[in-house]
Amino acid sequence: MFEKEQEIIAEKIRAFCAEKDIPLGELKWMPIPFSGEWGISTSFFATAAAEAKAGKSKGMPVPVRAQEIAEAVKNGISVLPGISRGEAVKGYLNLYFSTAEVALKVVESALSDGIRFGAGHPKNERVMVEYAQPNTHHSFHIGHYRNTILGESLARIVQFAGFETIRASYPGDIGLGVITVLWAYEKFYKGQEPADIHERGQWLLKIYAEATNRLAEKENETPEEKAQREAYDAERREMYRKWDAGDEYVRKLWLDTREWSLDELRDILHMMDVKIDVWFFESEVDEPSKKIVDELIVRGIASDERGNGGPVIVKIDEKLGLAKEKYRVAVILRSDGTTLYLTKDLALAEQKFDEFHVDRSIYVVDNRQSLHFQQAFKILELWGFKQAEKCYHLAYGFVSLPEGAMSARKGRVALFKEVYDESIARVLATIAEKNPSMPENERVGVAQKIGMGALAYSMLSVDNNKDMIFDVNEALSFDGHTGPYIQNAVVRANSILKKAVESGKWKLESQEPATYGYPLSTHEIELIEQMSRFPNVVQQAANEYRPLVVAAYAYDLATAFHSFYHAVPVLQTDDESVKSARLRLVAAAKQVMTNALYLLGISAPDVM
RNA sequence: GCCCUCGUAGCUCAGUGGAUAGAGCGUUGGCCUCCGGAGCCAAAAGCAAGAGUUCGAGUCUCUUCGAGGGUACCA
Hints:
Strand content: 5-15%
CATH class of the domain at 416-599: Mainly Alpha
CATH architecture of the domain at 416-599: Orthogonal Bundle
Strand order of the largest sheet: 7-6-5-11-12
CATH topology of the domain at 416-599: Isoleucyl-tRNA Synthetase, Domain 1
Helix content: 55-70%
Number of strands: 14
Shape: globular
Structural class: alpha/beta
Mean pLDDT: 93
């Protein structure tokens, strides 16, 4: 928030150093730690080291010389805008803000910018974020949830930072897994589907698990069992062939059952407040991707080995002249001429850039597919697709359970809907215990916000590249480093403001900006300091594609608020001008916390 | 074999090359007839090992050890 001031000060320092013939290095600004006060700091170690290298140090140790420079600069620059005093400590130049001025600026801009406080300037760049890619004919589990909340949070952050943002979903609606469900449904369960959207989605998953067991080779199987299994498999492959040939019956069966999965997916996205702009389906890039393969063969980039019963491959390492294996050999068309996941991603990339004119394309996909994307992007590059360098795979660690990896076949899956229902139940129990006066008709709405807040925060407060073990009891904890902790800070702020309004003497909109000339407590300074960080936090998170940065910040901000709340009286203050200033601070803090939570896909209720 | 992640407190995780490595859970102790105790204040406890680069390394490079994932027709 203080870029202008920093730049003016930096300019003064540069002028001073130029005059004194000091080879000033880059000026990096940091907050001052341990001060209890408030300001910015920069060090002169790099400058002192540069002098030493140039032989100008006269044998003086770098830290000592850095301190000498810091003192010289401190004495050499006179009055600075918004700075009350300066000091030179251990090679650092610390500049302390005039608290009244900065407090006013931070609080008033948070109040006047409102839900836009912290937003970045337009970047004139269009970014597509692809996430929410569950396979159809399968139910949405907690791993899909991590993907979706990560992608949604990233999309919100990038958009808020100033990029035009397109949200894309890419469900896997075809492949052997899908056909397996289709086959089993048709053969054993036709017409038996439950009516409820979620029950029906989960029912498809049960069919899938059962079918894969039927088709799996067992130990010590009898000749009859073996024959049965092979007959089943032949039926399944025949169904895949018919799908590929456009058989009307199979296609209709496929579309009907696919719709059941999409019904469930859309409902979950609605629960998460996710609005997808563009839907891509694997089945729709199937044909276009075959054309790309043809072109790659013609251009000599791919080798067609179908003549010898082999597939179409790209020897990526060989094409790049790499001695060590890195990108390896990629199969881009099966020997029977059908496409693979990789094939379809080539066509999808082309579509994203050519049809939607995006400048950058981010793929939120788990890290087990890192090689897949390295191969896809390299093949695009070999093909001459310039935007290949604008494709970025945002890998995240996969989610497993305390009992081990999730497995539909073993029936070991944490379904999103079940976790969601459990979260509602737990919040309702907590409300009954802690806030029994809450009217019954408000409880479910509040429980949804708190339950989802806990779940979202538990996912986003772990860095995306880390694998994660999903423990329901930890994810649905409401104490400590959690979403509800932050939501509770908003609720407390809201409670103060509501009481102020109810007193009839105060109204946010009709108040003049307050003055902060009274001695601010360290809690107020810390809170305002945290609020002022928000715009930079947004930019950092967007640049690094890391919602975690916002998640960590939101917690720090809430902690500052809770401490303030506990230690500093607001409504109990006798001095009317101090009370007014603190009420505006509370309103501003509530706004910043709300904005930060929004970027995490979390909304805060007024009461909880 | 090769490639990619990762290793920080008993557990789960933060930590722009910069000053005294921070949280939560758990453990222990405190919180006044005071705006909501889903809270606040405090205590104990830690960078896998070794070299290197640097004025300065949890952070960058290399080696070793350990964990997970990937590695030609699944997605």
